[in-house]
Amino acid sequence: MKNDVRELRTERGLSQGQLAKEMGVSRQTINAIETDRYTPSLPLAITLARYFAKPVEDVFHADDAR
């Protein structure tokens, strides 16, 4: 699953560590999400989307849709 987490994070001037702290996860988790090595749980995906004031489907995209 592709996502726009890196772009949204950098637009806000946040480091991976800062975003991880806001989400209550490790920096490694944020890195894995941004590099498409980890698909977050639904609660974490919703939390990320809400943090960036976006609908979940605007942050996370099916591999074949964009």
What does this structure look like?
The protein is mainly alpha-helical and 66 residues long. It has one domain: Orthogonal Bundle (434 Repressor (Amino-terminal Domain)), CATH 1.10.260.40. Helix content is 56%, strand content 6%. It is built from 5 helices and 2 strands, in the order βαααααβ. It has helices at residues 5-11, 16-23, 27-34, 42-51, 56-59, and strands at 2-3, 60-61. It has a two-stranded antiparallel sheet with strand order 1-2. Helix 2 crosses helix 3 (27-34). The radius of gyration is 11 Å and the shape is globular. 18% of the residues are buried.
Relevant terms:
about 5% strand; 434 Repressor (Amino-terminal Domain); 2 strands; two-stranded antiparallel sheet; mainly alpha; about 70 residues; globular
The structural domain count equals 1
Return the CATH class: Mainly Alpha
CATH topology: 434 Repressor (Amino-terminal Domain)
Low-pLDDT stretches are none
Helix content: 55-70%
End-to-end C-alpha gap: 11 Å
Shape: globular
| Binned strand content | 5-15%
Count of helix runs = 5
Quickly give the CATH architecture. Answer: Orthogonal Bundle
Q: What is the chain-wise order of helices and strands?
A: EHHHHHE
Strand order in the largest sheet: 1-2
Q: Please identify which CATH superfamily we are dealing with.
A: lambda repressor-like DNA-binding domains
Structural class: mainly alpha
Main pleated-sheet profile: 2 strands, antiparallel
Mean pLDDT over all positions: 94
Number of DSSP-assigned strands = 2
Specify Rg, calculated over alpha carbons: 11 Å
